[in-house]
Batch of 2 targets.
Target 1
Amino acid sequence: MSDARTQLLKLVKMQELALEIQAAHAVVEDAPARIEEAESRFRERNAEYVDIKERYDAIDADRRSRSGELATLEETRKHYQDSLMQVKNQREYAAVLKEIDAAKASIGDHEDAILASMDEIESLKTELASRAEHIETERGIVEKERAEVEAAVAEATARIERATAERTEIESQLPAALVANVRRVEAGRKGLFLVKVERESCSACHVRMRPQVYQEIRQASKIHVCGSCRRYLYAEAAFTAAPVSSSAPPPENGANVEAVNGGPV
Ligand SMILES: [Zn+2]
């Protein structure tokens, strides 16, 4: 088996792996959007519930933060209350009293607000409870979709790792210049650096090749790139048919690459 044939077979495998990695990356990248889609379908189906829940969460959060502030304000008030005993003159006394009044006013505000929200909280709670069973089923649907997406991501990540390792191994067996050029073409051609020859033309850009070039591709006696799109070319017949003996000298490592139009790569 000629060097060119061996190298082409490796390129075919590398292209397969590259497309596999590309597809797996797409699975990983699409995952957040797929989860968001499931969440968005949940929100659409349960718009009324979502409104009630959001209102409940907002009031509840407000109540919690006011309760927290109340504790601090009570401490402040107590602190000033105690320091009343240590004031030395009327002016200090008035200042401390002013602080106590301010704390008391804030405490009053928070207590009023908490009290006012209590009725609504209770009625929202009842509303939420009456929908709990249905919502649990609905959340189950979302969680199932999320689990499926996460499983697909885990599988794709493992596939990327395995295919990347395999590609690295293949690349290590090829001339560095060839690998570098493959990567250049790959980056410029959306991951497709190797295509089949069909009807004596590049199957990607349909540029026709000279008969001699076509023969060399059919025999896999030389590695060629398309003169137009610069992708590497191969003919399936080269790997299925019995090797055709070639009168050409054995190609040197990676150097024996010609463009279809005859120019150097
Ligand atoms: Zn082409």
Target 2
Amino acid sequence: MATVRGVVALLALGPLACTRAGYEAPPAGLDQRLERGAHDRARADGPADRGRTDGPGAADLARRDQSPHDQSPHDQSPHDQALKPDTAPLGAFSAPVKLTALNSAASDDDPSLTGDELEIYFASYRAGGPGPENIYRSTRSGPSAAWSPPQLVAELNSTSLDCTPRVSLDGLTITFASARSGSFELYVSTRATRSAPWSAPQPLASLGSSADDYGGSLSPSGLTLVFYSDRGGDLDLYVSKRATTGAAWGAPAELSELSTPHEEGGPQLDATEKVLFFFSTRPGGKGGRDLWMATRSSPGALFGTPTPILELNTAGEESDLWISTDLRRIYFGSGSTDLDLHVATR
Ligand SMILES: [Ca+2]
Ligand SMILES: [Ca+2]
Ligand SMILES: [Ca+2]
């Protein structure tokens, strides 16, 4: 979602895939790896540290040499590889890199990828679409291949503002926010295959409000959806649950332990539903919107005090994000005069 500048900020979450055959839960020890990562991040505070070379250890670099990005898709899909047990510590992220093939001179934001990371959806204010902000899609043939020129997603866009696309890991469900009927509401669309067109978007009416609602991100189980809304007077995070992937969504509840009078938005849960990534304008960041994360001891527990992702934040805006299931690749919109899509790895 683009922020401020006279346009209502638009944000989107990526509904993460529901049931996906072959999915493996993240390995035990995630908490310890995150703990170590937080320690590393504490050492990497500020742009001045971005060029340092003592970030990833030798073991990390050795791993990176055999990363899924270097694997031939014919040998093993990058996604399968990414889901293999991975015990290396989650250290600080690398310096963010712009996705220049996707960015424009206008604001580009709200990235969301399929689990294989071969298809990306995002929102952009560039000219040429039916409305002021539109949803675009790009694909690539492999994890290190070039992205194709972005294309408008005609089935999802309107003459109003459309933003915060969140595609599921299997690429068959997408949610997004649209102001086509007044305030921003969440919509959902599906497709039978990755090459089929998206169905006519349907409003997620039971989650909506008369205020603006953005970015509905499905957990990998498909049973939890987090989104953000200013129904309480300022942007805060909300969660809804359902018993099965075919059941109706329950009444949304505010994640009030994470609420401040400042902006909270762009939430995404990890597969354990114990780690939440989001953006916030709360004090303690670098300025404007910044990326934050919070953890909890179990999916039913309250989140602890959030920590900023120091090495990714700037005095500009860091907005809606998407993070891979192994938590090693994060895509987000960032910028000062206009937003651009970035990726950082660890
Ligand atoms: Ca831009
Ligand atoms: Ca708030
Ligand atoms: Ca910032």
